[in-house]
Amino acid sequence: MEINKKLKILSKIGKELNNAHITWAIGASLLLYLKGFLDDFQDIDIIIAEKDISKTKKILLKLGKLEPENPNIKYKTKKFLEFKVDCLDIDIIAGFTIVNNNQNFYFPLKQEDIKDYIEINGINIPLQSVNEWRNYYSLMGRTEKVKIIDDNIKNYH
C-alpha cells in the first residue's frame, strides 16, 4: 500500500482519537518513518493510555475490523488489539510491557510523556520519543532497529 494512503488512514484515526480526547501516541516503525529514519512502514502502532482502552476499541470498530488475538510471550502488555482498517494493520497497545530476562518492563503512556507532534493532513499526531523506542527495541532484542536509531540520531534534534 502506498505511503500516502497509509498516512490518510492514520489521519482519519487520529482525528477520531483526538475528538474523543484519547491519550495516544505513535511508536515503532511509523515513528521512525515520520522522523526520517526509515523510508517506509508496514503498519501503524498506536500506544494509548490504559484508561482509554474501551473508547479506543469502539472508535476502531467503527473504522475497521478487530482481528483475532495473537499473544506473544515476549510481551505482557495489558491490552493489545489488532485491527484492519482499509487493509492496513493497526496495533493498539495499552500498558506496554516487555519481557526481558524474565523481568517485566512496564511502560504506560501518560499525557505528560508526549512532547512531540506532527501534522498530517491537518490532524495533530502525537509522537513518542525516539530515545524511548531505542530503549524498547533494545529490551526486545531488536538490534537492527537500535542500529537504525543509533545511525540516525546524530541528525535528530
Brief write-up:
With 157 residues, this protein is α+β, with helices and mostly antiparallel strands. Helices cover 36% and strands 29% of the residues.
Oligomer: single chain
Report the strand count. 9
Question: What would the average pLDDT be, to the nearest integer?
Answer: 93
Provide the succession of SSEs. Answer: HEHEHEEEEEEEHH
User: What is the helix tally?
Assistant: 5
What is the radius of gyration? 15 Å
Protein architecture, described:
With 157 residues, the protein is α+β, with helices and mostly antiparallel strands. 26% of the residues are buried. It has helices spanning 3-19, 28-34, 53-63, 130-140, 143-152; strands at 24-27, 44-48, 65-66, 79-85, 88-94, 96-100, 103-107, 116-120, 123-127. The chain is globular and about 40 Å long. The longest helix is centred in the first third of the chain and has 17 residues, at 3-19. It has a 5-stranded mixed sheet with strand order 1-2-5-4-3. The protein has a two-stranded antiparallel sheet with strand order 6-7. It has a two-stranded antiparallel sheet with strand order 8-9. Helix 4 (130-140) packs antiparallel against helix 5. The protein contains 5 helices and 9 strands. Strand 8 (116-120) and strand 9 (123-127) form a beta hairpin.
